[in-house]
Fold this protein.
Amino acid sequence: MQLTKLRGFRDLIGPDARLLGVIEARARAIADRHNVAEVRVPALERLNLYARSTGETSDIVEKQLYVVQRSSEGSGADDQVLRPEGTPGVVRAYIEAGLDRSDPEQRYFYCGPMFRYERPQKGRYREFYQFGVEFFGRPDASADAELMVMIDELRRELDLELNFEINSLGDGRCRPLFRQALLEWGRAHLPELCQDCHQRLERNPLRLLDCKIDVKLTESAPKSIDYLCDECQAHFDSVRELLADAQVPHSINPRLVRGLDYYSRTAFEVVSTGVGAQSAIAAGGRYDGLVEALGGAPVAGTGFAIGVDRLALALDPIKFGVLPDAVLIALGNSALRAAMQLSGEMRAAGLRVEPLSPERGLKALLRRAGKIGARYAVIIGEDEISRGMVQLRDLRQSTQHEVPRAEVTERIAANVASSPRSLGEGAHLEPPTNR
Ligand code: ATP
Ligand code: MG
């Protein structure tokens, strides 16, 4: 009987889980500061939803969906699939709640696991985590810029080097001209295109630019930014200006596309400048036609999704790890109650505290305290209780003093505050320097 985990799935234990938690906590805090509300939607949806939003011809829908339950009716449209991405479910929920008509301007974030059946490798898993934000009812360029500013705030908090690549795909008016030009270019270069691109050419020529094989060839392909109408050009210029004001490091990538008709204008990707094959950390863009395509009102939309696992790969587990401020050691049963009570007071003061097992000897407990990296041990024996004292042992300096029980919390708090318990705790958001 096989009881091991499935290929492409992971158990995240201790520091590995911690890194994801740090990223999620900080991303949530940034969303809070931008007045973005949480939305939780199901992990299981109808296949139809993704066929109509992610795209029937996309790799995600054609090759990567996990089908959990086949529907009795034959077309497959109602098959139940694990979500491969967050946006379609959020858009569905927004429409289903009637908000597209009653209160269209909304700002949401979501966070959770996504599932794609693809070939596992470093930074590419079959279950992975995304943190995403969606703005509805905001057709203006400043909404696009604010999304990228949010990611940049996270970048600065985590002290990472990332670059933003941006592009504009135009809208329903000017994109058809670009599409036509790309189609003609593709037909002219047919013999040089890879097998997959032969398919892409007639079905969805924009995806030619997404090809990982024909990279060199597509450098000579038409660029969407050369076909923008005046309104799309002004929108793109405004996004870039706002990014420059906010000092978000960015460059134009004319190969960046999202292959569906619902996507319009801004498309962006955030790449890690450190080496590594899976360098795309986040992706996003404007999807002004999507709400309507899924049966809602014609409401503008724009958003992004961060690959939390890939961001975690760029972080140092030591820097973001945490160690206990203190352990409590109770010697004898009557000391146990005093120790439990004191540990509660210490937690209330914001300290990270672990009460150790009372069933072992002092020597073994001090070894244990050292192993888990505690800064202090607070030792309480019967004798100390009667005198209202405790033993405070500094495990880093191997010194020990008797101190009044009533003062020990304050003493530890003062000392750990002056020496941060992890480097990551010291990192904080700094505003751009030119303000
Ligand atoms: P890629 O080109 O790397 O396959 P993608 O275009 O499929 O990425 P999106 O659908 O735009 O990715 O998802 C947004 C982010 O989610 C990506 O930038 C990446 O960081 C992360 N991501 C996507 N697929 C995976 C995966 N299988 N494992 C881990 N992270 C992933
Ligand atoms: Mg992919």
Summary: The mean pLDDT is 92.
